[in-house]
Amino acid sequence: MKRVAVVSPKGGVGKTTVTVNLSVALHRAGHQVMVVDLDPQSALRFHFNLDLEHPGGLSRAAIDGTPWRDACVQSESGVVVLPFGEVGESEREQIELAIHHDPDWLLRHLQAMGLSQDAIVLLDTPPGASVYLRQALQVAHAALVVALPDAGSYATLPGMERLLQTYCAGRPDFVGSGYVINQMDASRQLARDVAGVLRQDLGERLAAVVHQDASVGEAVAFRRSIFDYAPHSLAAQDFATCVQWLQARFDTGTTWADPSAHSA
Ligand SMILES: Nc1ncnc2c1ncn2[C@@H]1O[C@H](COP(=O)(O)OP(=O)(O)OP(=O)(O)O)[C@@H](O)[C@H]1O
Ligand SMILES: [Mg+2]
Prior knowledge:
Elements: E1 2-7, H1 15-28, E2 33-37, H2 44-47, H3 58-64, E3 73-74, E4 80-82, H4 89-100, H5 105-111, E5 120-124, H6 131-139, E6 142-147, H7 151-167, E7 176-184, H8 189-202, E8 206-211, H9 214-221, H10 226-229, H11 234-250
Parallel strand pairs: 1-5, 1-6, 2-4, 2-5, 6-7, 7-8
Antiparallel strand pairs: 3-4
Helix pairs in contact: 1-11
């Protein structure tokens, strides 16, 4: 199992959008793909046209002590989806406290899924520091940081680099982190400038520049991936570039073994 964490210090930058579209592209490329929504907003399910009445998800499984396998949903796209699910505030606090005291929570549940060695698990995370982000980074073989080409996003990136250093760098099974500049509007000077600086800073760690494209939001409204809704759009091409970047990291010959140590 290859695990990819999709992360960002700031909210609303496109983590869930990136997670969904990469998962569909990877499934179409022939991989077994699972997405795990580690964000209590539980927004991932909207993208996959799941039955919204379905009460389950990993939060309910955490409360009831039931296996994740029973909470997964096979989506029309072929991607297996584990929604976060609906829980009240006090139950969410209870779950987060339990995760805080159980550093192997995520790895243990993923391993119990019995996925094939070549399966890819994409982990969607909430913005900024959280118990979910920490565990996602601790088990990730690769991390994708999503950022907007603006000054606010740029200013938060050193903090994300520190988290990557703490939880990922130095682990022998970690193949690397990359950045997705999302919602690029090339008609804006500031966006061009920030993207230019990031391109220079990041070099090969720039996984993709995804353009601002109305079809991205429209695809969500129709509960479809960009590859189903607008396969010839600019954004679809950009997400395909991102998949190529990820697959190149997969092909580096790394064994993708599970991390032996979880503390940084
Ligand atoms: N490339 C794009 N072009 C146009 N709109 C986009 C693009 N990427 C994302 N969006 C829109 O931006 C909004 C935020 O995206 P998304 O929910 O994926 O962000 P997020 O980082 O997961 O947010 P949160 O931090 O709340 O989890 C959505 O309305 C989405 O449709
Ligand atoms: Mg999100």
